[in-house]
Amino acid sequence: MAISENDVLEEIRDQLEAIKVPGAREATPENTWTDLDVDSLDLVELVKALEDRFEITISDDDLKPIESVGDAIGLTMRLVEAEGAPA
Amino acid sequence: MPAPDGGVALVTGGGRGIGKAIAERLAADGFAVVTLGRTSGDVQADVGDAQSVERVFAEVRERFGPVLVLVNNAGERQDGLAIRMKPDQWESVIDTNLNGAFHCIRRALDDMLSARWGRIVNISSVVAERANPGQANYGAAKAGMLSLTRTIAREMARKGITCNAVTPGVIETDMTTGVAEKLLAGVPAGRIGRAEEVAHAVSFLCSDGAAYVNGATLAVDGALAA
Questions:
Q1: Fold of the CATH domain A5-83
Q2: B184 pLDDT band (50/70/90 cuts)?
Q3: Residue of A3, B82, B126, B217 with fewest CB within 10 Å of its CB?
Q4: Contact yes or no for A48 and B159 at CB 8 A
Q5: Is A52 in the B-facing interface, judged by CB distances under 8 Å?
Q6: Domain B4-220: CATH class, spelled out
Q7: In this complex, do A45 and B156 lie within 8 Å of one another by their Cβ atoms?
Q8: Going by C-beta distance under 8 Å and a sequence separation of 6 or more, which residues neighbour residue A64?
Q9: How far apart are CA B144 and CA B164, in angstroms?
Q10: How far away is chain A from the Cα of B111, in angstroms, using its nearest Cα?
């Protein structure tokens, strides 16, 4: 099953909502972590959720340049393509 | 008071002494308790070895459930004056007492973060705050646990996870048999402590009532460090 950018965005919104980020449901790819008040620990949770949901592994190096929802979507799509999409 | 989501309470070094008393007390409180020992207990691991801890946490998750309460009690002593202490005596004690606590915390936090609930209690020692000649390794490891405790508390405070330490003084266990009387002279309370008294403090720190107690060090030492 192919994964769309919208699937990743929805997963990110779900996770932001779970970690009680205000306005999580309206988060857009343009929003940065600073905009959303997402700190490093929140990011760890988000990464864990993306890894579990899309069966990918996100390294610390992958994560360094990721500053926004859009960056996270792009990274996830790249890794899913490289590692194979979940059934 | 059981942990949420079918979580378990993992007590390292839970087979004897203070650890056994803690395991019994938490079980009486309603927790599903799993004891970890080097060669005994419900599951076995060398906590000083990160890979061994990885493996045992996977086993605990598989057989019992997520670890939502962690009591880092596993410890060892290899006493001797620092001038005569061999590097491997230093490293072994730091590995088991301090590195072991870190390895277990790191793995347990995964489960706790998912549940947004967790209780970590590190069993340090009075020697973390009141140095004892002959215990440079043990004292450094136990003092390190206090700093580790405070850091984890700060990192995880927003997530419903607490991390506290208990510093037992002279407690009657196999480890103090024969030397308890000698140590008694310095204890203001005038008596040796019981393992159950340490367990009671741990029980409190694991309770819902202690949700706002975070990064604290609770002395159970008859005023020895006061």
A1: 1.10.1200
A2: confident
A3: B82
A4: no
A5: no
A6: alpha beta
A7: no
A8: none
A9: 13
A10: 11
